[in-house]
Each structure stands twice: as C-alpha cells, then as structure tokens.
Amino acid sequence: MNFRLPIALALLFAPVLAWTGEQAEFSVITEGGNRLHISSDLSPLEINRMHSWRLRLTDADGAPVANARFEVQGGMPDHDHGLPTRPEVTDEVEPGVYLLQGLRFHMPGRWLIEFGIGLGEDADRASLEFEL
After folding, report:
1. What b/e sequence results for 93-131 when a residue is b if at least 16 CB atoms lie within 10 Å of its CB, and e otherwise?
2. Residue extents of the structural domains in the chain
3. Of 77, 68, 101, 105, nearest to 87 (Cα)?
4. pLDDT block averages, 10 residues each, the chain of length 132
5. Contact (Cβ atoms closer than 8 angstroms) between residue 112 and residue 11
6. Maximum distance among all alpha carbons in the chain?
7. What string of H, E and C letters represents the secondary structure of the chain?
8. Which residues lie closer than 8 Å to 69 by C-beta, 6 or more apart?
9. What is the CA radius of gyration of the chain?
C-alpha cells in the first residue's frame, strides 16, 4: 500500500513548529481524525545525529490504535530534497506506541515529515512540519 502525499498538499495543512529543548513533543491530527503524538529521544534535536521517535497513535477518544502500519518519508521542501536516511517503524512497543528509528537531519531549516498509516484495510495520513 502506498501512502504518499504530495508535499504541496501537506504544506497547506502543516503548521511550521520549532523543535526546541522546551518543546520535545508534538501532536498532530490525522486526516482520519486520529491523533499522532510524536516525541524524540533527543531534546533538542541535533543535526547529523541518528535518533529515534516514539509515535503514539490514538483515536478521537484517546484510546490507543494498535497494529497500525507506517510508511515515513520527508525532506526539506525549500531545498527540494528528501531525508538523508530511510527511517522506519521497527516495533510496536506497547499498544498504540510505535518506535520510529533511523532519523537524521543533516542541516538546519524547515523539514516536513509525512506519515502514511495503514489501519487494517483503511489508510490514514498525517504530516509534521518543523524548523530545526
């Protein structure tokens, strides 16, 4: 299943957030009305360092959404290039909580990360845009 979103469409719905030491977590609403809570193991994020994110997926009532499948892609829209690595969700560490590994950002600026989410036969999407 391919969950790709055109970057231009994602930019219409994604506010630019600054990822700082004070703000190590974000929460975005998916197109399907679920909530994706995102937190990094690094705070603040560092350039040229590998790290992981925890993704907590909940429904509109806050209940965990288990057994989801994720595709992750992204890049720097202003520079017209993708991520320097191929991050992937490697584990569901508890119901509705997923480990995304293999993230590295190689330069400061505006980044866009797109999440394709498979939920059984259904698909959902979310995007996060932030400034490093």
Report:
1. eeebbbebebbebeeeeebbbbbbbebeeebbbbbbbbe
2. 7-131
3. 101
4. 43 48 77 96 84 96 98 94 94 98 93 96 94 87
5. yes
6. 38
7. CCCCCCHHHHHHHCCEEECCCCCCEEEEECCCCCEEEEEECCCCCCCCCCEEEEEEEECCCCCECCCCEEEEEEEECCCCEECCCCCEEEEEEECCEEEEEEECCCCCCEEEEEEEEEECCEEEEEEEEEEC
8. 1, 89, 117, 118
9. 14
Dist CA 121 CA 67 (whole Å): 12
State how beta strands 122-131 and 16-18 pair.
parallel
Query: Are β-strands 122-131 and 35-40 bridged in parallel, bridged antiparallel, or unpaired?
Result: unpaired
CATH number of this structure's domain 7-131, picked from the four choices 3.40.50.150, 2.60.40.1930, 2.160.10.10, 1.25.40.10: 2.60.40.1930
Q: What's the token pair of residue 52?
A: 């992981």
CB 14 within 8 A of CB 129: yes
- What's the whole-model pTM score? 0.82
